[in-house]
Here is the input.
Amino acid sequence: MSKSFYSLAEIASRWGCSHSTVLTLVRSGNLQAVDISSNPGGRSRFIVPAESLEDFELLRTVTPPSTPVKRHVKVRKRDVIEFI
Here is the structure.
């Protein structure tokens, strides 16, 4: 059985980023969280519902292109003297 809620520290560890990065996502509204602090006007303590975490990760998942991207090679002319 998976967890119902995750702390910001657990998410930071899962993603390999800092706690402040996850906190920024929560405060910007990109990652939905619940403030469980006992004093609403004081320091916040957030937990993230598992559904919100899964939704966020699905929205941010990058899939590789189906066909390889062609790289353009820039050809430089060297040591060419043009006479008019």
User: Anything to note?
Assistant: The mean pLDDT is 88.
